[in-house]
Specification:
The chain is α/β, with parallel strands linked by helices. It is 25% helix and 30% strand.
Length: 287
């Protein structure tokens, strides 16, 4: 496993798919021009639409989605590994999937991941979200093989569920992707500490590209895309505007951190109070 450069694309996606595809492609090319071999975009890369009816109206199936050929071609053109944080994929007339895609440098889809945990919350500032009203949650955790090591996929609100990341680490992940569109209140309170915690407790690198700024209908996202080392250090951070951040990644640091604190080796079974909820099953890409 050799060292490599990664890039996180920070975006301020709007309501219409076409302009967002164009913006993402421009920033990916910029990142590749700076030597990035693994490039990640945020959650909702091609559409941040606050109205449920319009999401369902605009959503496309995977076969029909214009982003699919665009990003396949982009990966092949640049020769980079490309993780599209998520697209809104139509499942039927009433529901969509919030789906990540990993493209190889040949432009092939090597992994898909549907967001498992739905963001159904009421915030103290009056903001209310019901992701489950529009999106159907996934049921499978996913890891995928890269030339540099294994990547564990997740999306945004998944970040709050530590067992998912521990499962990914036990399945061999050295890197964790957390594309997000965090709200400003929760971002200020929890973004940095949660991402650092997921890195520390798993001994993984964490790559978290984010949406930023003000979107349609006044929705605001936090930005501050982060690359975090397996020891919990922030290696690169985006601000509050769209752009590219880069970091040099040394996979040897994963084993180094896990040797210093071998917590993954110390997991134990124990009696749990009550009836625990079933955990999502883990699959390798392609299963």
């Amino acid at each position: 496993m050799r060292s490599f450069k990664t890039a996180l694309i920070q975006m301020n996606s709007g309501r219409e798919v076409g302009p967002n595809i164009d913006m993402a492609c421009r920033l990916v090319r910029e990142a590749r021009g700076q030597g990035a071999e693994l490039i990640l975009t945020p959650e909702n890369t091609t559409m941040v639409e606050p109205k449920r009816a319009l999401i369902l109206e605009k959503a496309k199936t995977e076969a029909e989605h214009p982003a699919m050929p665009a990003f396949r071609s982009l990966a092949a053109e640049t020769g980079a590994w490309l993780l599209i944080g998520s697209l809104t994929i139509k499942l039927d007339e009433r529901a969509c999937a919030n789906r990540s895609f990993l493209f190889s440098p040949a432009g092939e889809i090597v992994a898909r991941y549907d967001k498992i945990h739905m963001f159904d919350v009421d915030l103290a500032n009056g903001e209310s979200y019901r992701e489950s009203a529009t999106f159907r949650p996934g049921t499978r955790a996913v890891v995928a093989d890269l030339p540099f090591g294994r990547l564990g996929l997740s999306i945004c609100y998944d970040l709050r569920f530590a067992y998912l990341y521990r499962g990914l680490a036990h399945a061999g992940a050295s890197f964790l992707s957390v594309p997000a569109a965090f709200t400003v209140p929760t971002g200020r309170a929890h973004w940095h500490v949660l991402l650092r915690a997921r890195a520390i407790e798993t001994g993984c690198y964490v790559f978290a590209p984010a949406q930023c700024g003000e979107h349609a209908e006044g929705r605001k996202t936090y930005g501050h895309s982060l690359v975090v080392s397996p020891w919990g250090e922030i290696l690169a951070e985006g601000g509050e505007a769209p752009g590219v951040i880069l970091a040099d990644i040394d996979p040897a640091k994963v084993e180094e951190a896990r040797r210093m604190v071998p917590a993954l080796q110390h997991d134990r079974d124990y009696a749990k109070p009550g009836q625990g909820r079933a955990k999502p099953r883990l699959t390798a890409a392609g299963d």
